[in-house]
Amino acid sequence: MNLFLIFTLSLSFLKAFHSELLSESEIQNLLDQVASIEKEGCYHTESCARKWLTQYNENLRKLSANMAQLKFKKEANDVKNPVERFKEIDFLVNLFFEKTQRIAKKFNEFSLNWNSYLKRMLKLASNRVITFSSKKKNDEYQNLLRNLKNVYAKAKVCKNDTNTCLSLEPELVDLMKKSRDYDELLWAWKGWRDATGPKMRETFIQLVEIRNKAARENGYRDMSERWIEDFEDENFESTYDSLYEQIRPFYEQLHTYVRRKLKNFYGTKYPKNLNSKFIPAHLLGNMWAQTWDNIYDLVVPYPKVNQLNLTKILNEKNYTIRNIFEQAENFFTSIGLFKMTRSFWSKSVFEKPSDRIVQCHPAAFDFSNGYDFRIKMCTSVNQEYFTIAHHEMGHIQYYMAYKNQPLFFRAGANSAFHEAIGDTISLSVQTINHLNKINLVDYNSLSKEQEINFLMSVALNKLAFLPYGYLVDKWRWGMFRGKINASNYNQKWWQMREKFQGIEAPIFRDESSFDPGSKFHVAANVPYSRYFISHILQFQFYKSLCEYSGNVGKLYNCDFYGSKKAGIKLKSMLEIGSSKHWSVALKKLTNSTKISAEPLIEYFKPLYDWLIKQNSENKD
Q: Residue 376: phi, psi to the nearest 5?
């Protein structure tokens, strides 16, 4: 659980749970404890630093545990947010980090020859969050952020003829996924952007200004520098661009193939007035055109070949929701990782309750006490949730592996690692080889046609995402740096969508719209580059685990289920947490300190070769 994301939640729930959560006075007490070192003034001694860090770590653990409890109660127990907001507590949390970061920076001035482990603690403690110089500025930021989130959460798209209004989830998401009606898709696409962006634009402009000012007050040039700092790589942007260039030729082949298939399917409805090299953004089965797997039925290479239907198989074998999670646990214990704890089985929310409304988006929770780990999701017995259960339990495995680290280091090696771990497991679980091992199918190899169909289904999800994952923060870095401003937000957004994704707005867009705001992570001020990196990393992790397991077949069908050797190597990386630079953790598993897209390219090589041949034979 990322403590500092949790702190951005409204703390107005604290009073409702005063018996379990820290009160305002208790937070003030924690603040006073860790700030007491200022009276002693012993910043130059290593022993004083150790004493302070010990106290700070324990107080941080208490805050983290309480905030995790707050978040779980909010999401899993239908807790209603009181109207009043306790801004004093919001500011105390801000003040807690403002003071502790200032103290850590003072210790850093004398730490040149200190123990490297101690120095890393101080480094992380000195730049945990961007703090504000006054309560007024903190309140202003929190209010702006709440306003943006509220617009996003409450937005609906209404049909004038029936007065039927659709929310994003599940109605609009399902419509974009299932509809093949060009005009209906355009209505939903335009409606969602009309219901969000224009209402956010002025608030977003103010948010950028106040975040950038706070970043400068915290010693950064702008907010982009703070976001990039999380990756601890002076050459991060050049690495970032290089990774995109590695995958670009393959993406372009996929794009060309999908564009041709969509033109054939929509026929005369496919717009002739748009750029013929682009795909209209509303036709790809996803509100943001970030993944394309929902249109697999329109682009499947060999539609007449027998298709695996895991959902049907699970139901025929009478799988229950509990069985799905037990199967996920079985995967991890087979490679020597952890069994789930009692509290996991007794306190997790595995299915949608009938007596209350909960947030159904899958999430994993770490309560910072070494034994309480939970999952919250509204599971159904189908292929999608079979994979998601393994993914979310991958997060739990990471929590359990680094639970003995100081709280400073209870996090992924960088912000991309946690997501990459869960997705690495999913790559193994979805293989025919694995499904055969756990007796869900009675074969373990694919025909050439089935191979291409399978790789296409994965590429539409994994590969299609990469340009979108890449550009969201490229746009925001430019915005924070002033290269993109309020006069050209939308223009620059669509220029990037066209340049990197080959995606075009299906109708005219101008600056009265604010289309980036239709994406939650933009509205909620959540960095996005981690998702681009994690989509690269997962294939790098996967290939290494396959090699340790002794895989001799094609990479796409490798399953490291049952390999204790693979499990030992994975665990050795996970238990590091963030106690060392991410390159050290990466080397533990892959024997390399560099992030590389080569394993991803190897994984999809049969499909890449097939696409080149298809595209050369079918010019459009």
A: -130, 115
